[in-house]
Design goal:
mainly alpha, 18 helices, about 425 residues
Length: about 425
């Protein structure tokens, strides 16, 4: 038995997760009534969500308190890359929606939805998240609020005694160690999530929305495999695909099944460490990316909004479509500040074309129906690109400084 465990542990995490996926599919097809298997998935996601806020709070606070003057981080570059990618995602979705127009069979939306009234409300929600009570921010996994308090406390603790900073670092390391324990359970958790997804949702209900899903998923794959690699190449002047596939494989797969950028924060932190990236940068850029780097959400907002436009036969000029690209990018960055995520931002985008709210809510209803796949691809794109652009910013800096670097885990150069 011990030999089997040792062999299992020697396998890479990605291989173990793939085994978990296969086992989950087999169990879903052979014993679909064994509902107890799904609890492993729920426990795994809950464990990640529980540890992530504490990890971010301690890691950011410790990194900033020990930050040395003159040591430059790459946060400005990372934020610019987040913004460019999200805007290009919205633009890509708009162009694809004109090339492959989709009409919807509208359904009644989910009840008790309260979409934001406009972009001002989205930004207002985001601002109030920044000044949230720190205890409340930790309890509700409000990462904007957690980041704000961690940064302020980190700056305040710069003048603290070294013993205080070391104690903080020890707590941060302890939580990081717990994260490693949780991540090692990923294969079992993913098995439960796959089992639950297949037995609960199935795929037959999605066939009626095949064309819409093809446009949505096609746009997200285009962003992941063409647009993002191009951004990486322009910044690093190297073949980007080794880094792109590393991020998709080690971050995107878990994000696809957990369907939560917040739950994937510990996975991304570990991958950044594996890539040898600067801890001062990734301890801030990863939780920030989970909040504002939302290329997948920009795709969802643009495609579903223009599907409603085509359904109603509304004529759209290029200028208005371009405004939609900008609006979807800005709204997507604030998506986490709105209950329901990207889908509830669709009525706001629909208002740009004068579409009534009752119709827009029906479009949201369609979004919930296809959400089992749409949300999985969206989260995988969003979360994997957090690491991708954090690494790109650091590699671009090293290129300009003439320092060597490698595009693979452990290749710090």
């Amino acid at each position: 038995m011990s030999t089997l465990v040792q062999k299992w542990n020697r396998l890479s995490l990605v291989k173990r997760i793939l085994i978990g996926i296969i086992v989950g599919i087999i169990l879903a097809l052979t014993v679909p009534n064994a509902k107890g298997i799904a609890i492993f998935g729920s426990l795994f996601v809950s464990a990640l969500k529980a540890v992530a806020p504490v990890l971010v709070f301690l890691l950011v606070m410790s990194a900033i308190s020990k930050h040395k003057k003159g040591h430059q981080t790459n946060m400005k570059t990372v934020i610019v890359l987040y913004g460019i990618s999200t805007f290009l995602a919205g633009l890509t979705a708009v162009i694809a929606s004109f090339i492959f127009p989709v009409s919807l069979s509208l359904v009644k939306g989910a009840k008790d939805l309260t979409p934001p009234e406009g972009i001002v409300q989205v930004l207002k929600t985001l601002l109030f998240q920044i000044i949230d009570n720190p205890v409340n921010a930790l309890m509700n996994a409000n990462y904007i609020g957690i980041l704000a308090w961690a940064i302020l406390l980190g700056i305040a603790l710069r003048s603290a005694h070294d013993h205080t900073k070391n104690m903080l670092a020890n707590f941060s390391d302890a939580v990081s160690h717990i994260v490693k324990w949780v991540i090692n359970l990923a294969p079992i958790g993913i098995m439960g999530l796959v089992f639950d997804s297949i037995t609960t949702n199935g795929l037959n209900s999605l066939l009626d929305y095949g064309k819409l899903l093809l446009v949505l998923i096609g746009c997200m794959l285009f962003i992941a495999l063409v647009v993002n690699p191009l951004i990486v190449f322009l910044n690093t002047r190297r073949n980007p695909y080794r880094l792109v596939f590393t991020c998709l494989r080690e971050s995107g797969i878990t994000a696809f099944f957990t369907r939560s950028s917040a739950a994937n924060i510990p996975i991304n932190m570990r991958l950044c460490e594996k890539l040898g990236l600067d801890k001062d940068t990734y301890s801030v850029s990863i939780p920030l990316g989970a909040t504002i780097n939302m290329a997948g959400a920009a795709v969802t907002i643009s495609v579903l909004t223009l599907a409603a436009v085509h359904t109603l036969g509304i004529k759209v000029d290029f200028g208005t479509a371009l405004i939609l690209s900008v609006l979807s990018a800005v709204a997507a960055a604030g998506a986490s500040g709105v209950a329901g995520g990207s889908l509830l931002l669709i009525p706001m985008a629909c208002s740009l074309f004068g579409i009534p709210n009752d119709i827009a809510i029906q479009v949201v209803g369609v979004g919930f129906i296809i959400g089992v796949l749409q949300d999985s691809f969206e989260t995988a794109l969003n979360s994997s690109s957090d690491v991708l652009f954090t690494a790109t910013a650091e590699y671009a800096k090293k290129r300009k400084e003439g320092k060597p670097y490698l595009f693979h885990p452990g290749g710090q150069g």
